[in-house]
Amino acid sequence: MDDSKEGDRDGGGTAPPAFQAAVQALRNSRLRPQIEIDPTPAPQRLAPYAYALEAAVVDGDQDLADGRLVLLHDPAGHDAWHGTFRLVTLVRAELEPEMAADPLLPDVCWSWLTGALQARGLTYGEPSGTVTRASSHYFGGLSERPSASQIEIRASWTPREGLGGVPDTAAHLASWCDLLAQVAGLPPAGPGDASIVTLPQRRGPQSR
């Protein structure tokens, strides 16, 4: 694919004005300092236009959680989305094995996603996703390593479109970063968020 076409797909060139505005809002967002975020290549076959970001929650030289957020746009609309925009995300973090064994953890993690959107007053539709727990146990020459567990949230939702058919992507990005911070075990970012329960800091976060 040539560069001009790629620029059209990711918010530049002759991309639809609504998509350009939505992407620009993502690029202009200011986030809490513990979250490092950068653009990354977007998937090519999910929608005519796509823009993607990857992020990591950083403590010194260690990553506590990471994720990817993709903005999709189909000007003709999409029956499954019930709209012309869709947000798709993946969030991952390491857990203490004891916490990973909690049978309520998947429900709690999903409630963090919906709660983060609701806390910022965002309207959305058609949410779907999965919460997956994975555990690794080491044997033989690796037997000295402690068992490791990971939580993974995959989700998508349709943001409500505002003036000019443009969703408030900056607010959705902020909500997504709230979710990342919760999964990473960071304290709430601002006043009024004290009721949010986060994962406790895990031992041995991943080195960068």
What can you see in these coordinates?
This protein is of the alpha+beta class. Helix content is 25%, strand content 36%. Strands 1, 2, 3, 4, 5, 6 and 7 form a 7-stranded antiparallel β-sheet that branches. Helix 4 (105-119) runs antiparallel to helix 5 (169-184). The longest helix has 16 residues, at 169-184. Mean pLDDT is 83; it is low at 1-7 and 191-208.
Chart the SSEs and their pairings.
Layout: H1 3-9, H2 17-27, E1 35-40, E2 49-59, E3 62-78, E4 83-95, H3 97-100, H4 105-119, E5 124-136, E6 148-159, H5 169-184, E7 206-207
Antiparallel strand pairs: 1-2, 2-3, 3-4, 3-7, 4-6, 5-6
How would you briefly describe this protein structure?
With 208 residues, this protein is an alpha+beta fold. 25% of the residues lie in helices and 36% in strands. It contains five helices and seven strands, in the order ααββββααββαβ.
What percent of the residues sit in helical stretches (DSSP H or I)? 25-40%
Q: Structural class given helices, strands, pairing?
A: alpha+beta
Number of strands: 7
- Name the average pLDDT: 83
Which descriptor suits the 3D outline?
A: elongated
- Strand percentage lies at 35-45%
Q: Taking Cα atoms only, what radius of gyration do you get, to the nearest Å? A: 18 Å
Number of helices: 5
Largest sheet: 7 strands, antiparallel
Distance between the termini: 32 Å
Order of helices and strands: HHEEEEHHEEHE
Low-confidence segments, given as residue ranges, are: 1-7, 191-208
Pfam families: DUF3000
Protein name: DUF3000 domain-containing protein
